[in-house]
Design a protein that fits this description.
The complex is a heterodimer of chains A (172) and B (253).
Chain A: H1 9-144, H2 147-164
Chain B: H1 3-11, E1 15-21, E2 24-29, H2 30-51, H3 58-80, H4 88-104, H5 117-139, H6 141-146, H7 158-204, H8 206-250
Antiparallel strand pairs in B: 1-2
Helix pairs in contact in B: 1-7, 2-4, 3-8, 4-8, 5-7, 5-8, 7-8
Classes of the chains: A mainly alpha (172), B mainly alpha (253).
Chain lengths: 172, 253
């Protein structure tokens, strides 16, 4: 068993030689390309992250700008709406005023028309009434005409007149 | 055949032949073969996996990437600071090398190279070298050894603390070496002991042996799962402690 704990110097030499060669070879052929690839990937990742971050910052800035623009548009829209409302109110008032005025005018002219029509009608009625009454009176008079009574009446009236005005007496 | 032979057969390295290189006598052994297999898997497999654009391999690529990124973000950079990225190649290779060796030890006919004191000592020595290299590179040679004693220590304690801290550097490395080694062989020894129970009870009577077998196999399966977990855990611990020691050498606070 002492072979187990007695280091063989020759094998130690082999080990060191073998390992030193391995380090030299692998450092060139394996670890250098591996670490280069890893470095490249890490750099690419860093670059990607950086560009993503700048893109996000830009997007955020753009959003803030859009928000500001939107807020401006909202106030603008509110202002325009208010303006439109005020002008519509004014317009309404004007239209109502005009309507009222023209309605007043129409009523006035209608009144005038009615008055003139009324006057005309009244005149016509009066004329007709007068004519009718005259005609009725005529008929009545014609009916009442009694020759004898009229002769008497006229004699009486003549006597009265002669008495009042003797100079007009025919029998002189 | 006693338990000793079985243990030695399964845990201790098998040296097939020797190569002489100057003053060094180098063994050609099973653990060296395992290191070779692990190296081939890593050197061929990882670059192919990482460079491939195939959809089927994407999950494996992602797994490797997750581990490397975890090492970078949770282990290396917090301990070493941002200059630590330059050492990522070392720490990733260390983690995958130890992990592959640990896992190869769980493959049938495989052997756990990290269960060999020489291998863990070799790895610990590279850590020791890295710690001192990084510390000297970061602070200069005088700054490094000047800061080896913590701040706020009375002047007269310096002669005492300086050698202690120097020894501390070595003991940290030594602890790393022993920790990995012990963790890796412990599981194997436990598994071998559980399997041996079957034969120990079987030598009493065949019926008892068959009775014990299901319990033993269940326990072995459980221990194997534990070993699988420990394979990942110890690779992580080794890398994590290396990072802590290196960080402490680079930034003495």
């Amino acid at each position: 068993m002492e072979a187990l704990i007695r280091p063989e110097i020759g094998l130690m030499f082999w080990t060191i030689t073998c390992f030193a060669l391995l380090v030299l070879l692998l450092a060139k052929t394996a670890w250098k390309p591996l670490l280069q690839a890893v470095d490249e990937r890490e750099r690419a990742l860093k670059h990607d992250r950086h560009s993503a971050e700048t893109a996000r910052a830009e997007a955020e800035k753009a959003r803030a700008e859009l928000d500001a623009k939107l807020a401006g548009l909202k106030t603008e829209i509110g202002r325009r709406m208010e303006e439109a409302r005020v002008s519509a109110e004014k317009e309404k008032d004007v239209i109502i005023e005009e309507a009222r005025k023209s309605a007043g005018m129409i009523v006035e002219s209608a009144k005038r028309e009615i008055d003139s029509q009324k006057i005309e009608a009244v005149r016509e009625i009066r004329d007709k009434v007068a004519e009718l009454s005259i005609m009725v009176a005529e008929r009545i008079l014609i009916n009442k005409l009694d020759h004898k009574a009229n002769t008497d009446l006229s004699s009486r009236y003549l006597a009265e007149i002669e008495k009042d005005r003797p100079e007009l007496k025919l029998e002189n | 055949m006693g338990l000793k032979e079985i243990l030695e057969h399964h845990i201790v390295d098998h040296i097939w032949s020797w190569v002489n290189l100057g003053p060094l006598r180098l063994p050609i052994s099973k653990h060296l073969l395992m290191m070779g297999i692990a190296s081939v898997i890593l050197v061929l497999g990882l670059p192919l996996l990482i460079r491939s654009r195939s959809r089927a391999l994407a999950p494996f690529r992602a797994m490797i990437e997750i581990i490397v990124l975890f090492l970078r973000d949770e282990v290396v950079v917090p301990n070493l600071g941002h200059k630590g990225a330059a050492y990522m190649g070392y720490f990733s290779s260390l983690f995958f090398f130890i992990l592959t060796l640990n896992l190869l030890g769980l493959v049938p006919y495989g052997a756990t190279a990290t269960g060999n004191l020489a291998v863990t000592a070799g790895l610990a020595l590279t850590t020791f070298a890295l710690v001192n290299f990084a510390g000297i590179r970061e602070q200069g040679i005088f700054g490094y050894f000047g800061h080896i004693v913590p701040k706020g220590v009375p002047g007269w304690l310096y002669p005492l603390l300086f050698p202690i801290e120097l020894i501390g550097l070595v003991t940290k490395t030594f602890a790393l070496c022993i920790r990995l080694f012990a963790n890796m062989i412990a599981g194997h020894i436990v598994i071998l002991a559980f399997i041996s129970f079957i034969f120990i009870f079987g030598s009493l009577s065949a019926i008892v042996g068959f009775g014990v077998a299901p319990i033993s196999v269940g326990l072995v399966l459980f221990t194997l799962m534990l070993e699988l977990f420990v394979a990942f855990l110890q690779a992580y611990v080794f890398v994590f402690l290396t990072a802590i020691f290196t960080g402490a050498a680079m930034h003495p606070h």
